[in-house]
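Reopening: Sulfite oxidase-like oxidoreductase still failing for me.
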Amino acid sequence: MAVFSRGFGGRRREADPALPPGQYLTKDFPVLSAGPTPRIPTDEWTFRIVTEKATTTTWTWDEFLALPIEDIDTDIHCVTRWSKLGTSWRGVSIDTLMAEVDTDAQFAMAHCYGGYTTNVPMADLLGGKAWVAFEFDGAPLAPEHGGPARLLVPHLYFWKSAKWVNALVMQDRDRPGFWEQNGYHLHGDPWTEERYW
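Support: Ran it again with your exact input. Result attached.
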């Protein structure tokens, strides 16, 4: 069962050129989830990358926090038409996580606690474009927003920034994840309104 909150008011894009087409500005941080909110203690949390050859690299929470951490200031855009500008995050770059991983895969599937999945091309995860984020606005990421850690791919619609992320599994081709199987676009660029198939 999907849970949606429309608890925000907005203004049209014409008032702010920082908004992609069809988006409205919100000061809130609406919560949208495809099911119940998992609550994962950090001492039980792990993140893994699985290559196309089934080689697995795994980090515990403490190992993850020992990696180089970056501050990220970015805008986020939800497919349900809200945008939030100037958000502040902290996290570990996917580039850092992939540095010791041997893969030729061009695509990945993000897997999450709770069973959610979303597909993302590696070109959208590398080159300083994506992180596994664990703080928002100076505080630990709340469970309803994907804590303890979520994928952050801010240049794509926000459903690609998978909450409660626990794995990236490399793929030989672009296979659809949860929302993509249910009619959402395979890629999700907000500036070209890649909302649905």
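Residues 47-192 form a domain with the Sulfite Oxidase; Chain A, domain 2 fold (CATH 3.90.420.10). If you still see a failure, please send the error message rather than a screenshot.
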